[in-house]
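Hello Y.,

Per our agreement to keep a running log of every chain we model this quarter, I'm adding this entry. I've kept the format consistent with earlier entries: sequence first, then predicted structure.
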Amino acid sequence: MKLLLVAGARPNFMKIASIVAALDAHNRTAQQRFDYLVLHTGQHYDEKMSGTFFRELRLPRPSIDLEVGSGSHAAQTAEIMKRFEPVLEKERPDAVIVVGDVNSTIACALVASKMTYTEKAEASKRGRPLIVHVEAGLRSRDRSMPEEINRLLTDSIADLLFVTEVDAVHNLVREGVPRHRIHFVGNTMVDTLLQHRARAEQSPVLENLGLQSSSRPDAQSSPSFTGSRKEIAVPYGVVTLHRPSNVDDPAVFRGILDAILKVSLKLPLIFPVHPRTLTHIVRFGLTSECRVLEPEDKVAETKAGLYCIGPLGYLDFLRLMSKAKLVLTDSGGIQEETTVLGVPCVTLRKNTERPVTITEGTNILAGMSTSTIVRAANKKLREPVRPSRPKYWDGKAGDRIVAILNKTLT
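Predicted structure for the entry above:
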């Protein structure tokens, strides 16, 4: 059985890492093995945005790199489709696994849906590869979001739909997806977080930023997840911001930045800047609002303020986020990760496709206006955190996916 796993953007790597680990575990013991290839479309091509993730997540280097690069939604999607089709014709996998909701997801699913293996092909019993969508059924109900269109279209042509939360099951059933195609398996990105959390604790990112200093281990202290070292920590928050609806319009961006600056007067905020966001900070003349933290600078020396740093690798960012008092973000994945970590999260959007992070997690929707963001941040800083981990967010989603694939394909 041959599988082709598609990764295009940074969140995809975290989602496929769990599946790759489960496939390797299956192959060590099962008689019927999976051959698999990892394909990188190159949608995120920056080393910090993709390359380091393969090393840190212990993923095999991609067997195939389409090297698509950036472009408009139409140009990027079309280029991925053009470059993916000959790969599919050559490799003839039994299944193509796409994850998430980026352009790579819908582009590769569309090509697979229209592929016809020739009669001379020996590799597949089917006329085309099975289309598998991991993280199916999530809906923001906002069709102005490119990701929402990608989600809807991918789910409409997928053969197997693996979902992360109960609401996603209900969405798919309402849309007419046959129930036997839908499988509630949990969250592969949570799998990856739980698997690598202990390694992330060894990251020096907090010490490098001056947010934490460590003394020698205290023999009297009780053991904890972070070990027995005695830590002196500076309270801080984390910001991530990248969605076009937030950063492309100077008026919207200005309002969000004003809110972040107000929050930073109470709590220093660390802002690993997405390349797209940095472009707009410069274009809109907002560079004076952000302090760029140089390697020799320490947050502890200056306390309050907004501190811009470069993109971080997975392990560094996981440790930074896990110790934060507050996270302000427009990322869908970070809403899930903060829920598992028990870190208060303020989502800088009017909607979310991940409602379980609100009903069972640590998340709150704040919109994009200055006043509502500040109000939501103050609320989260005041109230105690009472998270509960959603069903199947237990580190075993990848195993469930591989078990279902094994049953379906044999």
